[in-house]
Amino acid sequence: MFSKSCEYGLRAAIYIAEQSSLKKKVGLKEIANAINSPEPFTGKILQILTKNNIANSLKGPHGGFFIEEVNLKKIKLSNIVSVLDGDAIYTGCALGLKQCDHTSPCPLHTKFIEIRERLKVMLEENTLYDILYTQGEKNIFWLKR
């Protein structure tokens, strides 16, 4: 459903958010390792995330990537998807066909509309904070898989 860039971007943002909640800044190598992504590709994704104010970066010996705590409640998953994939996830064809719309639907068109709408709601209603915390309790979930 998501592009590889978007998958890695979501993983990176969640990992950075988790580490930021522990008052840690993380470097490119650590992020790439944690999200199981090639380092150069991760670097390009992090550039996009920082350019779009999803993550912050600080250079120097005490530098790294971080997300300010106040922004954890503001940054929606839809923000991350939007900067990396645009709105194609909400408008594209389930089968990837260019000629799929309500006048010329693919076999999955009608069923996929509902899935896209539910996905959009989920991405718009959940922030990085919501992913990290359940009823104010921190979720410990980040495991290298």
UniProtKB/TrEMBL annotation:
Cross-referenced NCBIfam families: rrf2_super
Cellular compartments per GO CC: cytosol
Lineage of the organism: Bacteria, Pseudomonadati, Bacteroidota, Flavobacteriia, Flavobacteriales
Gene Ontology MF: a single term: DNA-binding transcription factor activity
The protein's name in its UniProt record: Transcriptional regulator, BadM/Rrf2 family
InterPro entries hit by this protein: Tscrpt_reg_Rrf2 (IPR000944), WH-like_DNA-bd_sf (IPR036388), WH_DNA-bd_sf (IPR036390)
